[in-house]
Specification:
Layout (H helix, E strand, L loop, with lengths): L3 E4 L7 H4 L5 E11 L2 E12 L2 H16 L3 E7 L2 E8 L10 E9 L8 H16 L3 E6 L3 H9 L3 E2 L5 H6 L4 E6 L6
Parallel strand pairs: 6-7
Antiparallel strand pairs: 1-4, 2-3, 4-5, 5-6, 7-9, 8-9
GO molecular function: acetyl-CoA binding; N-acetyltransferase activity
Keywords: Transferase
Protein name: Acetyltransferase (GNAT) family protein
């Protein structure tokens, strides 16, 4: 499978880019923090992006680029199959964090290494921005958390309260920035 990875420019971030992208996830279990312990709970729902959500996403990613952040896409046969975005603004008590604001893989391409490659691009951007850690306010589903754990993520030492307020059920994670050049 010949997958191409490229940094995206503002002009390419249109609704049309996301039309073939299949954001579908059947969630059965989610992690919740109760009394300082993480518990896997039966919480079932389906995530699916509609036209308005894809349009909004395109605008959010354009804003990431306008504010000097980075967006990288993965393409197969000319269609977007995955993307990652990292904001440039550093935060934390030592300005150690930049935020990975999105990482999504089209359903039919999950489990093929695309997410891992995009995560490594996010780590590269983190280093380029001068931060030492990626901060991720990540979906609490069992599958999403398993992916981030496999990437070396752990619970964040410092929580970004704006992220917590925006998505109170998300898991707040961090990962050391490293890039092996591949």
């Amino acid at each position: 499978m010949d997958i191409k990875y490229m940094e995206l420019k503002e002009a390419s971030l249109t609704y049309d880019l996301f039309v073939p992208f299949h954001r579908h996830q059947e969630v059965k279990k989610c992690w919740r923090k109760e009394d300082n312990n993480w518990i896997l709970k039966e919480i079932a729902f389906i995530e699916e992006w509609n036209k308005e959500e894809k349009e909004y996403l395109a605008e959010c990613l354009k804003n990431t680029i306008k504010t000097d952040g980075k967006v990288c896409g993965s393409f197969y046969n000319g269609e977007l199959i995955g993307f990652v975005s990292v904001e440039k603004e550093m935060f934390g008590s030592k300005k150690q964090y930049v935020e990975l604001t999105s990482l999504h893989i089209s359903e039919e391409y999950r489990g093929k290494g695309v997410g891992k490659q995009l995560f490594q691009m996010a780590q590269k951007y983190c280093l380029e921005f001068g931060a030492s850690k990626l901060y991720i306010s990540a979906h609490s589903s069992q599958e999403t958390q398993a992916f981030y754990k496999a990437m070396g993520c752990v619970e964040a030492e410092e929580y970004n309260m704006a992220a917590v307020e925006k998505e109170p059920c998300d898991c707040q994670l961090e990962c050391l920035a490293k890039f092996d050049g591949n």
